[in-house]
Specification:
Elements (H helix, E strand, L loop, with lengths): L17 H10 L10 E5 L2 H10 L2 E4 L15 E5 L4 E4 L4 H13 L4 E10 L9 E10 L12 E2 L3 H10 L4 E8 L7 H10 L3 E3 L2 H11 L2 E11 L6 E2 L4 H20 L3
Parallel strand pairs: 1-4, 1-5, 5-10, 6-8, 8-9
Antiparallel strand pairs: 2-3, 3-4, 5-9, 6-7, 6-10, 10-11
Length: 261
Amino acid sequence: MAVPQHHQKHDGRAYVTPHALLAYRAELGIATDPAPAAVICCWQASLFAQVRSERTHRRLHGPGEVLLGLAGSAGELIELDSGVGVCLLPIGAPAAAIVLEELAALGTTQVIGVGAAGGLSPELSPGDAVVCTAALRDEGTSHHYLAPARFAQPDPTLREALSDTAKGAARGPTWSTDAPYRETLEEIAAYRDEGILTVDMEAAALFAVAERLEVRAASLFCVSDVLSGEHWAPHFGARDVDAALRQCFGAAEAAIAATAR
């Protein structure tokens, strides 16, 4: 069964739009701020809290606060003294798509995802950085934005800028899936043999939505768990992983500065 099931989906006009939601916010008297031109999206609360505590910033109101807030997990957006936005998102492709749609409607033209990913390659260790070169579309969201294709692609300019600023980072594709508890041994082995380095949940959707909206997008991962040994080896919250995430954030901010429009 193909997704989406309506065969003319990609030629259709969206019925529910972020602009309509923003107009609804205005009717409710809810403030909405313009979004920064460049935003770093992250999924680790510890990284977001560290950046927020270390840097001069202001809180912005907008993306995710109404629609995601209905589920009790609204996104949070700040603007740093450098002018770069930082957005904390709930995990998963649908939330990433919702927030990116709203960011784009509010003026964002560049997005970099900085987050944790599972390492499929035996050459990757916890704390290693990986510049994502493509995302295998094994989630549902990207298929509602782009016609069928196996991979979604990051913006090449932003991808290469990340390779320049994330010194020593590996480069390779990721496997984006909606179902972390259904990452099977057989899939892991097959994708590892194919040269796919990591597994994540959002990159394919981020790239697909960005392409549809003509927004630049790329992703930089920090390996937080290892899927290449006899058993799954989690290292979430380990000191070296937290430090590496912070370094990835710095590389993303430097890449944005290098490619500012």
